[in-house]
Structure formats: structure tokens, C-alpha cells
UniProtKB/TrEMBL annotation:
Residues 1-98 form the HTH arsR-type domain. InterPro entries: ArsR-like_HTH (IPR011991), HTH_ArsR_DNA-bd_dom (IPR001845), HTH_MetalResp_TranReg (IPR051081), WH-like_DNA-bd_sf (IPR036388), WH_DNA-bd_sf (IPR036390). Keywords: DNA-binding, Transcription, Transcription regulation. Gene3D superfamilies: Winged helix-like DNA-binding domain superfamily/Winged helix DNA-binding domain. The keyword Nucleotide-binding does not apply. NCBIfam families: HTH_metalloreg (NF033788). Pfam families: HTH_5 (PF01022). This is Transcriptional regulator arsR family. PANTHER family: ARSENICAL RESISTANCE OPERON REPRESSOR (PTHR33154:SF18), TRANSCRIPTIONAL REGULATOR, ARSR FAMILY (PTHR33154). The lineage of its organism: Bacteria, Pseudomonadati, Planctomycetota, Candidatus Brocadiia, Candidatus Brocadiales. It comes from Candidatus Brocadia sinica JPN1.
Length: 101
């Protein structure tokens, strides 16, 4: 894997390293949510939720859209699939190594 791809995946995986961010990703898996629903659902302050949403958005794992004064968040399915594929490749390589020994 080239250095650029490695850096991209490191950024994506780092964004997933917090339990709050993992919970947000899991919550958004059921569909687009307004930011107000996200912080109410997790019973966290708006500032804290906004901070974690910013990290996820910057990494490319989620996307946002504005509708009036509200911001709605959803998964960036293309990048979620890239992370999934990357991890599956690692597991497959380990299986192949084990099978050749």
C-alpha cells in the first residue's frame, strides 16, 4: 500500500478511535440526523457533540447539509466502505499467511 493511502486510512481510523465518535457513526447508520437530535440522543452538550462531528466530518466519514438554521449529518458511505474494505484486506492477508504455513 502506498504512503498516501496509508495516511488516508490512518486519518479515518484515528477519527474512529473515540467511543463517542463510534457511537455517533453507529447512530447515523440508521439515516440522516439533525444535530439537535444527535446531542439529545446522547445526552451530551452541543459543544461536545459539535467537536466530535467536526472530527468525523474532517476525516470524511460523515457529511453534512444545512437546511435553514439546522445542520443534518449522514454517513459518507463511500468512505465507510473504503475503511471496511481496507480492514477486510488485512484480515484476508492474515488468513492467507496462516494458510501457507
Amino acid at each position: 500500500m502506498d504512503t498516501f493511502k496509508t495516511q488516508q486510512f490512518a486519518k479515518l481510523l484515528k477519527a474512529l478511535s473515540g467511543d463517542i465518535r463510534l457511537n455517533i457513526i453507529s447512530y447515523l447508520a440508521s439515516g440522516e440526523k439533525c444535530v439537535c437530535h444527535i446531542y439529545e440522543y446522547f445526552k451530551l452538550s452541543q459543544n461536545l457533540v459539535s467537536h466530535h462531528l467536526g472530527i468525523l466530518r474532517e476525516s470524511g466519514l460523515i457529511k453534512d447539509r444545512k437546511d435553514g438554521k439546522w445542520v443534518y449529518y449522514s454517513l459518507n458511505e463511500q468512505n465507510i466502505e473504503k475503511v471496511t474494505h481496507f480492514l477486510q484486506e488485512i484480515v484476508q492477508k492474515k488468513k492467507e499467511e496462516r494458510d501457507t504455513c
